[in-house]
Each structure stands twice: as structure tokens, then as C-alpha cells.
Structure prediction request, 297 residues.
Amino acid sequence: MNGELSRTQQTRQRLAVLIDADNISAAFVADIALVIDAMEFLYKNPCEGICIVSSDSDFSALASKIREGGKSAYGIGGSNTPASFRNACTEFIKLPQNRKAASTKSKKAASRCPRCGGKLDVAWTKSNFQCLTCVACGGMSAKIDALKKSVSAECMREMLDAAKKHEQLGYVCPACGESMSLLKVESGKKHLEIDLCGNCRTIWYDKGEFEMLAPQDGLLNATVSAGKAYRREIVLAVAADMRSGRRKASDTGSLKAMLKSIYHVPAPDIASVVSALQCQRVIRIDKKGGKVSVLTA
Prediction:
């Protein structure tokens, strides 16, 4: 850590360092205290940047807020830090981790949902493959073999090859604790992003993604490439805004205009975001008139 930070020695007095005290039993209290300190530094202190030492994705929004406030947000954490926090920072520094600590954290990660931290229960897919499901957010994980009857062998090979390249960090694997790769899978009008672990071949599906990737009407032959982590954050933000009534869209035209003007989604990515909103049952689009209806969580 000292070696990584040596380049900022001259500006140390202008950098506020906030450490997530995850070894404290009342971790929630510690998180609130950290956010309060960050807001004080953001609005009352002349420092040029704020450094958050944590591997918790809950601080993604805080890092974004710091950057919106005109200061640099630096993140320091382990190799299992979720992509949402990494990408929210101006710069993220990954700390080395000893094997014993990594093994302990991997076992802990394997028992929790990588998206919301909820408990995972054992279940079975319709094709009789074992999977883990999260009651809280509706996500699930299963080995890639669960797609054998619905996804072409060539597509599965592309997915595994892309996962091994590890171009875009995804969630932490609920099976082995390693960082998964975020992949974009496209076939016709279907656009979705899944997380695949190149280490143990486990796929994490957010709510509705497995049904979309494993259709009942034939074999899916899709193109695979590295995903874009920011899309996931946008989908979560849009879902929260539309379900709370803060943002409204009456039809597909107004929805696309809102994504472009308010959420700054690039034109080539708008279709993927709309597809993800439908896939995760945030909205329903009428096929005839294009009317948009918001669905409850």
C-alpha cells in the first residue's frame, strides 16, 4: 500500500483518506460515519480528493457523488472489489492479498448474493440443473452447463473465451469468490449482460436474465463480447427513478429520449438498456402501440 501511494506523498495533505472499518461488529454504523465524514470533506474542506479504503460496492454512489462535487474519488481495495465501485472512482488501486485471507473471503462470498448480499438458497432449473437463487433480488447462479440445451456450443465457447480474457470486471463469483467477467450477449432484438466466472464456469443472472438467455423456442446462437459495467448502474438508477415516480415515460420514444438526455446513455447502448429494463421486469412495453408500463418490484 505504501508503495502504491508513494506517488502522492507530496499532496498527502490535500487528500482525505477514509477507511471502511469492516472489522467492527456494528459495520452499518461505521458505514454511516464514513459517509458523514466524506460529505464534510466534500463541502467544508479544501482538499482536492477523497480516498475510500474499502471493497464494498455500497460506496459506489458515494464515489460518484464526490466526483460530482468536483473532487477526485480514489478507491483502494482488494481484488474482489465489485466493478461498480471500481468504475465509480477516478482511480482505483488494487491491494495484494495473502492466500489465507483470500480463501476465507472466498468462502464468505460464496454464501451471499453478489448483487444485494442476500442469502442464497439451493434450487433446480427446469432442465434439472442445480442452481442458487436469491429471494431478495430474484437473481440466480448456475454452471454454464445449464445452457447446453438452449445455447449453441459455439456461443458457449465464445462466452468462456471472453470470460478468460477478463476485459470487464463483473460481480464476485458466489461459488468460488473470484472476480467474474461481465459479458454482453446479443441475438436479434435480445440484449443482455451476464457475469461468467472463468475460474469455475459459474454464471450469475440478474432477475429474468436466465429465462431470456435460455429460450424455450429453439437454440440460441448469439454474439458475445465484453460488457459495459456502467449499464448495470444505469439500469438500477432508472428502475429506482421510474418505480418511485421521479421519472416517467409514456412510450418507447419518450423512454429513449429520457435515457439519452437525462442519463446520458450513448445512442448505440440505448437498445441494450431498454432490453435490460424489460428483462428485469422494471417495465413492460406494449407490442402494438409502444406504451410503457412500470412494474412493481
The CA atoms of residues 191 and 272 lie 5 Å apart. The first helix runs from residue 2 to 5.
